[in-house]
Amino acid sequence: MEFPGVGTGVCRRKFRPRILTAGAWRKPEAARGRRRRPPALSGVVITVFKKIMKKSGSLFVVSGPSGVGKSTLVERVRRRMPELAFSISCTTRPPRGGEINGREYYFLSQEEFEERSRRGEFIEEARIFTNRYGTLREEVVRRMDSGVPVLLDIDVQGARQIRAAAAADARLAAAVVMVMIAPPSLDTVERRLRGRGTDSDGQIALRLAAVRGELANFRLYDYVVVNDDLDTAAAELESVFRAAALRTALIDGGLFND
Ligand code: ADP
Ligand code: 5GP
Q: Which of 2-6, 62-66, 110-114, 215-219 is the least confident region?
């Protein structure tokens, strides 16, 4: 799938212009111990720095079996990293109790989903269990262009489509970081799905049947975070994101553009 236009935007880091007056950077010997006087404004202006770094936002992809704890982890990390923009997906599955249209998902009818797909509004889409899911271009590209990191919670089929798009676009390749969330054991997923209490037995059976197959794709990802202890897993995911956001590959041009 074509995923054009993921370019760089301007991430402005504002530095107050620093005016150094001659001699102000070093105190004369005689002045030591005396009360400090502000440097004379009439001094010679040595340098005025203006620094603007152009940077793309990262594209973080998080996948893992249903019930492994992706939403829980992502919510934790987002609380600590409010700069992360979460991409709200479209789905044809009905909302679970407590889910709100436009917060967890955009809940669409089959026809609405089909129409958006036909118009090319999705950068990736997949049929998962009995429903359809898709990531809107609108949720992702403009934010990345303006330097905002974007986070996708999508399945393995979607992650493959993002990898394929990145293989054809060097800028996207530089921005994509993929993390697999794994359970500490296979039994854990069933316990968590049942504990969540939001899915029918039929849906749980479908989700459990897919767990091994999904985890077998772990080499598609750059990192694996095991969600055993929630605090530890959230800290690990956060450190992946924080380190990734500092990659030189995201910088367009030089560090300082005067
Ligand atoms: P996913 O988004 O991957 O489908 P959820 O985030 O909805 O999974 O988590 C499934 C259930 O597991 C929820 O009830 C959640 O509270 C619980 N859970 C998530 N992470 C942990 C953890 N580390 N330890 C115990 N329970 C967890
Ligand atoms: P759930 O129905 O439990 O919210 O999500 C089921 C699965 O759909 C999860 O693995 C989740 O990551 C995946 N998913 C959610 N949104 C998207 C999307 O936009 N695209 C793809 N490919 N998968 C998605």
A: 2-6
Alpha carbon of 167 to those of 87, 170, 217: distances in Å? 21, 7, 18
Average pLDDT, the chain: 85
Q: Is 179 helix (H, G, I), strand (E, B) or coil?
A: strand
Amino acid at site 56: S
Residue closest via CA to ligand 2's atom 5 equals: 66
For ligand 2, what atom is nearest to the CA of residue 129?
6
* pLDDT of amino acid 221: 98
Confidence (pLDDT) at 27: 35
| pLDDT for the residue numbered 37 | 54
Q: What string of DSSP letters covers 183-244? A: -SSHHHHHHHHHHHT-S-HHHHHHHHHHHHHHHTTGGGSSEEEE-SSHHHHHHHHHHHHHHH
Residue nearest to atom 21 of ligand 2 (CA): 154
> Which pLDDT band holds residue 184 (cuts at 50, 70, 90)?
very high
Which residues sit opposite 59 in a β-bridge?
A: 150, 176
Answer yes or no: CATH 3.90.1140.10 is held by domain 59-250.
no
Write b or e for each residue in 144-172: b if 16 or more Cβ atoms lie within 10 A of its Cβ, otherwise e: bbebbbbbbbbbbbbbbbbbebbeebebb
Output the pTM of the full model: 0.83
Residue 126 beta carbon below 6 angstroms from any ligand 2 atom = yes
Q: Domain limits of the chain?
A: 59-250
3-state secondary structure of 21: strand
Protein residue whose Cα sits closest to atom 23 of ligand 1: 230
